[in-house]
Amino acid sequence: MGANESLPGDGPIPEMHHYYSKFMRECPSGQLSLHEFKKLVGLQGLDPQGDLYIKRVFDIFDLNQDGFIDFLEFIAAINLVIRGKIDQKLKWYFKLYDADGNGCIDKKELLSIFTAIQAINGHTNMTAEEFTNMIFQKIDVNNDGELTLEEFITGVERDEDLMELITKSFDLSNVIKVIQNGRRHSV
Predict the structure, then answer these.
(1) Topology of 15-181 in CATH?
(2) Where does the pLDDT of residue 66 fall: very low under 50, low under 70, confident under 90, or very high at 90 and above?
């Protein structure tokens, strides 16, 4: 409601200068390493599963795969999480699950990433196994034990409950809020 309220659209993120100063304060070199990224989002000292998840998130944000997140990659990531359309987010989630990058998600990949997310978020009303089986039961249309990007997006978009579950489970906006607000107060 204030002067910095943004209009819908594709313009630059209004808080760009805020992100930039925070990014440069946390990361004077302009290159955020995995260790610094964990520090920035307050997720160091996780168990191995949690560490694996954060590493996957980092790798996906690291668009040019140079082992660092620069400011443009950082803003692209924030933009996706805050403003991304649902199919962009689903593509992003798919990349997150497809650990070996072969273009398909198998049960093992989904199970390991969901276990890792549970280790961080902690709250869920089903086990990682139940979650994985349910997803495959609902959207693996040809029953080959693998999900293609198309199967994943179509399946999730067709099922509102699944969409809500996936969006909630993999919501990174809490990470973004930490980045936006620092540690002083949580929104």
Answers:
(1) Recoverin; domain 1 (1.10.238)
(2) very high
